Queue: 2 jobs
Job 1
Amino acid sequence: MSEKMGIGVIGSGEITMKATAPGIAASQHARLAVAMDTRPELAQDIAARYGARWTVSVDALLGDPEVEAVYIAVPHYLHRPLTVQALAAGKHVLVEKPIATTLADADAMIATAEQAGRVLSVAFEAQYDDRMVRLRELIAAGLIGRITGTRIVYRGDKAASYWTGGYTGRVQTDWRTRRETSGGGVLIMNTIHDLNTLRFLTGLEPVRVYAEYDNYATPVEVEDYIAVTIRYANGAIGTLEAGSALPGRDPAQPKDRIYGDRGQIVLGDPVTVYLREPFEALPAGEWLPLDLGTAALDRGPMIDKFVQAIREERQPLVTGLDGRNALAVALAAYRSGELHQPVELG
């Protein structure tokens, strides 16, 4: 066994090229061993960039003894079969968000990991971000008092080419355009990250969701605008507004917020806070930046902490259940929009 854990990537497309492969290269505890894609030119490209081997065969990658863990970044509907196959082959898995497109698929992935005794994690970033970990501690210590509400806002204007080529055009495909293969539009594509982040920071669990959504300007099956109201177990209320075809986007670049009965947090860069009462050394009555440290510039910390969990034989910072819980909220919102009535989360 090499000092650095050998990672295989299944899917050498956009997110692998832009984020995860560089993160593996930057990590202290992992190396890219094998790049796989059904399109050989993509696998060859990633392999050449990082000194790895390449293949077009999932079976070949999973049969490679140097591959101890795999990162899976493929169309969403393929997350379950490939994750289950990798876990059954004895590999640990880091799967791209969303964990799956259905709760049944997520449950199957989680159950397989437990049966195989392998680590399953989802590529959410909040739990791997030391700044968010520190902010979570401050919130739990009473920084803004009792949580009363949350707000998620995403206002984008994706080019028509996004739906068949992503942001970079690296891979031409139509899976993003269909609900069956993508799971949905802007909610599950983009703001599922935010749903995970706010759940992590606040510790609050949604119990009821009401949503309306539609497609106004995009020639695809999935939504390009959605509005969601969330009721949390503690009585707090969350709102989510997300659009992927909003002309001009939003020059103000709105940020997620957390409201409390003693203050408010804006998740910008830097994170800022307004307090009604002083907290530790922070005065009240003015907006203040929080000193939470420096943001990581790549996914190196995510990869390192994923590998450490494997080496220490413990649960990862982001579990399969974390992925399932974020997915459950998104799917409840879609169901609510179909029914035009609130949906309870079990």
Job 2
Amino acid sequence: MTTSAGSLPRTILGVAVSAVVAVLALYAGHVVPMPRSGFLPTSFVTHSVMLVLSLVIIRFIPRASFANFGFTTRGYRFRPTILLWVLPTAVLSTLATLGSGGAKAPGPAAGLSHLQLVLFVWVYASVCEEALTRGLLQTLVAGEGPRPPRSKWLSMPVVVSALFFGAMHLVLIPSMGPAAAAPIVLATFLGFVAAHYRESTGSLVPAILVHVLFNIGGMLPLWLLALART
């Protein structure tokens, strides 16, 4: 991995701006009241603030376009092999569930219905978190303007985006304790995969898709095993 003299200021700026967005989004999720009996979970506020702030910042960056921040399909062609990224978390989730005798670990998705998990964890959270980490942050670190596709995995934008995404999941420690180590490591790994797709295609679409697949793999086996026991 190589860096240029100009990459360090971009990296510091990108991390600082993204950290402010993440903190404000998390704070909003704690202070904005949500009806306990309502359909929208508390995470909806957090992710909505994250998405809106990311879009607003991009909008007011001079000479920036949303396409340059990944909001485009350019350079991306769907290949069925990308669906295989559901397997890492599916295998680990199955093994963890079997090893624990089916006991559910505490986490931010606890108490949500299957429909809420699909809408707000699998899909909405994936879109909002990718808009921040692979859209805003990764592009700020890489610099503005169209960039040619790359094949290397360890460029500065990829590493920073992946590590930042993993660090965002440190908030799981208070609720999950030592069990939070697994999702933090998996989130970091997901960060590298999604960032690589974002850099090599210029689009957020495959990054969001991989994110959704990781979420599906982490939860769907639990549902299937629960059904098998009934």
